[in-house]
Specification:
Helix content is 13%, strand content 35%. It has five helices and 19 strands. It has helices spanning 2-9, 28-42, 224-227, 229-232, 245-252, and strands spanning 52-58, 61-65, 68-71, 77-78, 83-86, 91-96, 101-104, 109-117, 123-138, 147-151, 154-158, 162-168, 173-180, 183-187, 192-195, 201-204, 211-213, 280-281, 284-285. The strands form two sheets. It has a 17-stranded mixed sheet that branches.
């Protein structure tokens, strides 16, 4: 592509003088447009309207579109068709134009597959492919039927929802921790199961039907700290990506490290997160007033 740019530079050195045929004169605006088109060909994102923005980034994180790979920086626009990848310490917090929020955690890949925006800043279609890693998803202002999250083993339909997701690409296994709303988990043969209760776990395995499961049964092994890091600790997240009920769910499924929850889930649902929701110590989260 550099060669093409060099070749076009000399075209802008237009000479003046007698004998030039007017029919062969091309205006600067034509070449500027042509030059811009070549840049768009080299980086397809330049020809698109952004669908979201990376409002917080921890290196390393990249976006691949066509043959163009860019490093994602704080405030970077994101585009349809981009493959977002993070390294071991990477994380990207995204706000889409319909106010949907997503977190792409460490060692993760997310493909922005489909995004059809209406004039009222809601979406008619919102599809992402969670290929591997850890994610948080918080629906925005659009109809719940517009959203679909694809995994290697099936699909997730949302019902006005907040949830965390872990995708094991090797095992082709998707695990979901529901924090609010409801989910419909389906495999590719259209076998489905609904998650309706706060703190429910769901699985989309590759070899059996989707299911609701209890992590204490050991049916699906996972590491809470690595696979659901944002329920275990929300400190890496901006305030508007934190969910108050996550604290309740972390204690509800104690994994032998969290104290018993002192109150009902209703105390945490449908209220704004507070600073004391995120105080931590060696034993996990504190109760209000115990520290932080």
């Amino acid at each position: 592509m550099d060669g093409a740019i060099v070749n076009f530079r000399h075209i802008f050195r237009q000479r003046t003088g007698a004998g030039r045929a007017p029919g062969r004169l091309l205006t600067n605006s034509f070449f500027i447009s042509l030059f811009a088109g070549l840049l768009a060909f080299a980086n397809p994102a330049t020809a698109q309207t952004p669908i979201g923005q990376a409002v917080s980034v921890d290196p390393a994180a990249t976006a691949l579109l066509g043959n163009a790979q860019t490093v994602i920086l704080h405030g970077a626009d994101l585009y349809l068709g981009q493959l977002i990848s993070t390294g071991e310490g990477g994380q990207v917090q995204i706000v889409f134009s319909d106010e949907t929020r997503m977190v792409v955690g460490p060692n993760s890949q997310l493909l922005l597959e489909d995004y059809l925006l209406r004039n009222d800043n809601t979406v008619a279609s919102f599809t992402v492919d969670a290929l591997s890693g850890t994610f948080r998803f918080i629906t925005g202002d659009s109809d719940k039927d517009a959203y679909q999250i694809n995994t290697p083993s099936g699909t997730i339909g949302v019902r006005g929802t907040t949830f965390d997701l872990f995708v094991d690409a090797i095992k082709e296994l998707g695990l979901v921790w529901l924090l609010d709303g409801g989910l419909l988990l389906c495999d590719f043969e259209e076998n489905c199961v609904e998650l309706t209760e706060i703190c429910d776990f769901g699985a989309i395995p590759v070899d059996v039907d989707p299911t609701v499961f209890d992590p204490e049964d050991g049916e699906f092994e996972f590491d809470p700290e690595d696979d659901f890091p944002y329920v275990i600790s929300q400190l890496p997240l901006r305030q508007d990506f934190r969910i108050a009920v996550a604290r309740y769910c972390a204690r509800q499924h104690d994994f032998n490290q969290f104290p018993t929850i002192p109150s009902e889930a209703a105390d945490y649902v449908n209220r704004e997160p507070r600073e004391d929701d995120y105080c931590e110590g060696e034993g996990g989260y504190y109760d209000e007033g115990e520290g932080g």
